[in-house]
Amino acid sequence: MLWSTALPPTVAFVFTILVTLFQNKAECRKSSLDVTNPETWKKLADKKFEKFKMTHAYSTVKHPKNVILFLGDGMSLSTVTGARYLKAEKMNLQGGDVELAWEDWPVASLVRTFNSDRLTTDSGSAATAFLSGAKGSFETVGVTGNVSCCQCTELKEVERAKSSLHYASKAGLSTGIVTTTRVTHATPAASYANILYRDWEGSGATNDKGYKCVDAAAQLLTNGSDINVVMGGGASVFYGPNESIAFRSKGRRKDSRNLLQEWRQIQTQKQRKHAVIHTTKEFNQTDWSSVDFVLGLFAPNHLDYYVNNADQPTLADMTEAAIKILSRNPKGFLLLVEGGRIDHGHHTSQAQYALTETLEMEKAVERALSLVDPSETLLMVTADHAHVYGVVGYAKRDTSIYDVDSTKKGNDNKSYLISTYFNGPGGLLDKPRSDPALEPNRFDPSYIAQSLVNVSFGTHSAEDVPIYALGPFSELFHSPCDNTFIAHATMYSLCVGPYADETHCSGDRNASYRSVFQMKYYLILLSLILYYFLH
């Protein structure tokens, strides 16, 4: 800048910095989508529905009575690959010999996962998207993108995102949540809670005006007491430090409330057959045909990783119990099943945890398939986001997914793991890396894999995640979609919420298809008539 040479050096420097800042501000890119407005995503979903109405499948297949959404938290495409190879390894077969249960389903596609303010989503805002159909801000749960984390403010009604489970319950369907995480964790909480910070699980916040933002556990009672089945971990946020329930572990609530007792009181007042259970013994002794509402909290925190052999119900067992309860409703049901600890294994670069948890979710899928009628149940398997995990190198097919690539080494003449991470706690700082081939503990579940970049907690990644679908209306997922579409497709399929009056719900389901057929027929007839007169 020639004009700056006439100014004193210090002034010229400051002036140049200011000009640069203003230039950068002016160059900020703007979004062509009103991402914070839920109507944006509904309109995009409606376009897909209009195309679906023109298909043969829409006119000939009855909409599903039930929907089960299996959510592998952090289950990226690479995670599916790694779990597939691990499955073969456990069967003493070679990588590629077997598939996961959902990999031969007739419909598969990809899902975009960005949220309203980040290229890479967190689990809270992702759950808001695939459960309510609205894009939320980073680290919020059950709120639209018009508000951001993490200050306590009073929410407007339009800022509260209502989930598909909410609408299903209102329509008279049974609903359920089954997870291996705390039931107040990001994904399950989005079913019933509206919180401005995902960590407000057992204690909220109060702003300087005295307004209190209620925590997720308390909102399970105020907003989610009509959910028939809630099973997972996280009991400690339901009672205070002066109490010890089932686990010889004191609670973490800062108020004096015992939400377990309050939940019982709510169900008793509504004259519902209900149960609160905490142990595997209680789980096994419960007659699922005798209860309509169950709150099962089987650990103070998350459920343990499956490989640790904890005395807790498995994800498949909880899924079976939920289906036995929910399927008694003649109107149908909506069930969310989350393999939540896949994500936790990846965050700490412990691939064995992540991949084993993926196979545990596969068992839940297989159990569900054995219990439901596939002609009246839509099943989906997907993920909320991806991870920086990859299956790399040119390893031979009989190589363990936890081992090194024996066919190649790095330029430092050291081996590398075929299950690897871009970033994580295994990244090295200012020292050469070790050779994992010389580390016999690389096959231990707690082994932390090497990564390129050192961070204490590995990040998510932004690539699309898979979705697999089976059953009536599975054709809705034949092409790539946004994660918000999953929520809209769920409600559309079940005829709840904003889609209660669709033609496939109560009217002439064939009208749309027939009108298109008739139009094509008339065009062909008109063409023949014109041809006759012209020739």
From TrEMBL:
UniProt KW keywords: Magnesium, Metal-binding, Phosphoprotein, Signal, Zinc
Cofactor note: Binds 1 Mg(2+) ion. Binds 2 Zn(2+) ions.
SUPFAM superfamilies linked: Alkaline phosphatase-like
A molecular function GO annotation: alkaline phosphatase activity
Pfam hit, one: Alk_phosphatase
Binding site for Zn(2+): 73, 343, 347, 384-385, 460
Ligand binding (Mg(2+)): 185, 187, 338
Cited CDD domains: ALP
Cofactors, names only: Mg(2+); Zn(2+)
EC numbers on record: 3.1.3.1
Active-site residues annotated for this sequence: 123 (phosphoserine intermediate)
Record's signal peptide: 1-28
PANTHER family noted in UniProt: ALKALINE PHOSPHATASE
Family according to the record: Belongs to the alkaline phosphatase family.
The protein, known as: alkaline phosphatase
Species, as recorded: Trichobilharzia regenti
